[in-house]
């Protein structure tokens, strides 16, 4: 690349830095002002002392509470409305394409998610790169190792979400150097990183989690908000189920380690998402099934509630406009055909509305797994991982069909459904289909369905047929194909970084 072009690009990069644009190598965040200046050796000091390290670690945890759009709201839009579980819910130009398969690189949801995820990566990198150089004797080696481990689990979680959405992404694990006339060519790739392959990203996720495991805090049954060893194990189980580094033996291993950590199915399914008897608080937090959750309390509630339906502790607040992620007729029918009354009523609720985008106003369904500003958002739970173990047992080279069926039956019997029949239990393909259906009914409105279809190569089969049988779904714009497994990279990113290539099909 010619030097004069590089200078033009770097000038633009500096403008991006000044505007805190999240497309940079080291996107600025609200904590970037912690930089204290230059020490006696002329080195930049990022964290002056232990308190500032702890404060920055808290900013990572705050992302799970305070910035829910990208890691929760949009994951549900993609996981459920971009699958057969739900409609978009509104007719907005940025939301409807997830229902009718017309997403393009100009979509603002895609841009928001890309930007926010990279901001999160930058926050994690700031701690990982700098914690060991903090000059504070009260910050012990064990504490440095733990804080770095928590940041690596956080970074792995973000990269996992990103790679499943976009495939090849920039793999950013460092902090960009200063731009000067002498360093322009040296730092160019840091500010305009190339994409890494899916496999490379998965290997970095694996590396982060394995390095974090010995030093991360252990599972605390009374506080499921921490990036613990158990969160790392859950993520590893999910990572090893994915195609690029698939290892079914390890899926089973890490699921079993979660059981050894004390995780199990909650006996009563209604404990997971329910409210107390007078609808003034969540029914339970920190259940034995919850692996990682964001918790909310009076005075500091969960704002995304009103994006999906009613807030039961503030019943009429923000209920004058159409909500996102409306349950589909196809999903409702799946619950009804299975006789799955418990999960149906815990997942879907009906209210009267003033709009009728998909259903009559008199009986309009809403997703019901976040039903108040005080409900926890559960990022990972044991039922998901346990069913992945069943999937691994079905698909590994030497299948264990009976053991896999026992796991599925365990999930079914919790909600009073009968065990699988012999014909299903003894047939690999039939059992895999039963597993996929069970995951759909169990994990509806938890952002899992689309990724299940992608992981099991079911996108074309399921999604191209649902438009014909689901009469309430908007008209399909493009058929699903092999290119549909990745979503479009925001066009603004490609315009600003010549090293980023758009995914095929967009």
TrEMBL record:
Subcellular location: Cell outer membrane
InterPro entries noted in UniProt: SusD-like_N (IPR033985), SusD_RagB_dom (IPR012944), TPR-like_helical_dom_sf (IPR011990)
Main location: membrane
Cited SUPFAM superfamilies: TPR-like
Lineage top rank: taxon: Bacteria
Signal peptide (residue range): 1-22
GO CC annotations, alphabetized: cell outer membrane
CDD domains according to UniProt: SusD
Keywords associated with the record: Cell outer membrane, Membrane, Signal
Domain spans labelled SusD-like N-terminal: 50-240
Residues of the RagB/SusD domain: 294-506
Family, similarity comment: Belongs to the SusD family.
Protein's name in the database: RagB/SusD family nutrient uptake outer membrane protein
Organism: Sphingobacterium olei
Record lineage: Bacteria, Pseudomonadati, Bacteroidota, Sphingobacteriia, Sphingobacteriales
């Amino acid at each position: 690349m010619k030097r004069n072009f590089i200078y033009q690009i770097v000038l633009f990069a500096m403008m991006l830095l000044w505007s805190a644009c999240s497309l940079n190598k080291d996107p600025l965040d609200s904590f970037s002002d912690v930089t204290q200046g230059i020490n006696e050796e002329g080195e930049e000091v990022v964290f002056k002392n232990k308190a500032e390290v702890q404060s920055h670690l808290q900013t990572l945890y705050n992302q799970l509470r305070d910035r829910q759009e990208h890691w929760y709201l949009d994951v549900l839009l993609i996981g459920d409305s971009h699958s057969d579980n739900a409609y978009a819910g509104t007719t907005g130009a940025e939301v409807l394409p997830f229902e009718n398969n017309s997403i393009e690189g100009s979509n603002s949801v895609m841009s928001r998610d890309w930007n926010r995820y990279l901001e999160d990566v930058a926050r994690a990198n700031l701690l990982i790169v700098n914690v060991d150089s903090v000059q504070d004797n009260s910050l012990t080696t064990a504490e440095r190792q733990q804080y770095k481990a928590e940041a690596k689990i956080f970074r792995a979680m973000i990269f996992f979400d990103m790679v499943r959405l976009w495939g090849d992404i920039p793999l950013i694990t460092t902090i960009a150097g200063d731009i000067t006339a002498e360093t322009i060519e040296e730092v160019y790739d840091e500010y305009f990183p190339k994409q890494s392959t899916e496999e490379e990203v998965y290997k970095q996720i694996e590396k982060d989690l394995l390095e974090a495991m010995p030093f991360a805090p252990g599972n605390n049954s009374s506080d499921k908000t921490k990036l613990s060893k158990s969160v790392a194990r859950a993520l590893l189980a999910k990572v090893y189920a994915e195609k690029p580094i698939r290892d079914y033996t390890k899926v089973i291993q890490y699921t079993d380690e979660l059981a050894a950590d004390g995780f199990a199915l909650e006996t009563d399914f209604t404990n997971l998402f329910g409210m107390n008897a007078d609808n003034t608080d969540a029914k339970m937090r920190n259940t034995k099934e919850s692996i990682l959750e964001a918790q909310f309390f009076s005075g500091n509630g969960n704002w995304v509630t009103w994006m999906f339906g009613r807030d039961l502790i503030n019943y009429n607040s923000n209920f004058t406009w159409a909500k996102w992620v409306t349950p589909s007729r196809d999903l409702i029918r799946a619950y009804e055909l299975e006789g799955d009354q418990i999960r149906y009523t815990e997942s879907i609720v009906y209210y009267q509305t003033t709009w009728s985008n998909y259903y009559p106003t008199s009986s309009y369904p809403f997703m019901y797994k976040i039903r108040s500003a005080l409900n926890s958002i559960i990022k990972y739970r044991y039922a998901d991982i346990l069913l992945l173990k069943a999937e691994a047992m079905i698909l590994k080279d030497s299948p264990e069909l009976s053991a896999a069926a026992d796991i599925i039956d365990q999930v079914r019997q919790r909600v009073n459904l009968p065990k699988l029949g012999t014909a299903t239990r003894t047939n690999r393909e039939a059992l895999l289909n039963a597993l996929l259906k069970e995951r759909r009914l169990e994990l509806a409105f938890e952002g899992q369905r689309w990724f299940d279809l992608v992981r099991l190569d079911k996108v074309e089969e399921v999604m191209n047929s649902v438009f014909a049988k689901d009469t309430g779904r908007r008209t399909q714009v493009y058929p699903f194909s092999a290119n549909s497994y990745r979503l479009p990279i925001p066009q603004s990113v490609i315009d600003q970084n010549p090293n980023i290539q758009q995914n095929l099909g967009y």
